[in-house]
Input
Amino acid sequence: MFKNIIIATIFTSILHASPERGEIIYKQMCFTCHGPNLEGGIGPSLNDDYWQHGSSPQAILDTINNGAPGTEMIAYKDVYPAEDITALRDFILSQQAGFREVVRSYYADNRFLGEPLTPELFNSTESSKQTPIPENSLWIDHKHEGGVRMQAKLYVKTPGDYQFKLNSHGRTVVYIDGEEVYSYDPDEPQEKLISKTVKLKSGTYSFDLLHESKKRHGWRVSGSLVNLTGGGSFRLHGSSLAGSIPKEIHAGPNAKVIRKWIRNIPPRSLLCLLPNKVIVSFNPEDGTVSHAWHGAFVNQTPSLPDRSAAPSEVKGSPISDLGKSLSKPTKFDFIAYETQGDKAVIHGRVDGKLRALTIAPNGSQSFTITTK
Output
């Protein structure tokens, strides 16, 4: 019996600190700002190429523990035990795909000329400058002859056969987990180009891009790691933050539900974008509609430069008569939201009873709300 108690205790501890436990916590708390699928909302996306506070396991843990000053992100070290925060961090890491923890190093000399470009060669040389890259936008600024090294962690979710494709300028060699998978030399014939197909399982790999060229103005690294079997690719070149996020959000043929900081509406409101260009602001704190607009879209340009540090804007004509849209319940407990075709559905407890509130388009300039 004592042995069974020990085994049960160990199993419970492992489960408690697992990514599965982290997913439970995420769906209880984090999704309200970062979206059900980590896609972002009033807070930034947690699965794209831009990480304002760092994408390393320790950086993510520090942000969860200590919060982000100047935002709604509080310090959760006083809310959850350490094992729960670790589990949450591990769940976030389990959802990554692509290049993370990118570091760029410059080598301001020409000692690489004529030498095979290997990690060992670069390890034996002191870099003149080393910079963590907060977003996956790799710009090589060459004011001298020398070398550049890009190091990163590669997260793979979908196993398959992968091949690296790169638009090269100057000699470039790429290593994944120490294996040379790509090599290009402009002074060599095209048939000497190396571009291997490598089998990658789900997991994390080391990535090393070594580059050498003569003095030039600059080069944006343009390349992708392509999944030849399952489709899709990881872009190495990325884009700037302003270029990678749409400046305007429209519903399209299906409804969308997003969270954005909009001045003068409750801070945790759900913005329900309907295909008839109506936007309904639903307040999950009290179960009411606070605002609505027709001919509307969300302009998030103000928040682009520093990621959710300025309010976005709803552009459209206000719908003034909201009196019949939804009566205020005595008590409303928000549970979750989803979309069903052209409708937005909000689940919660209305005066203690489970209810689903459906917000649907009505004509070209209005909406309806039904409760089940």
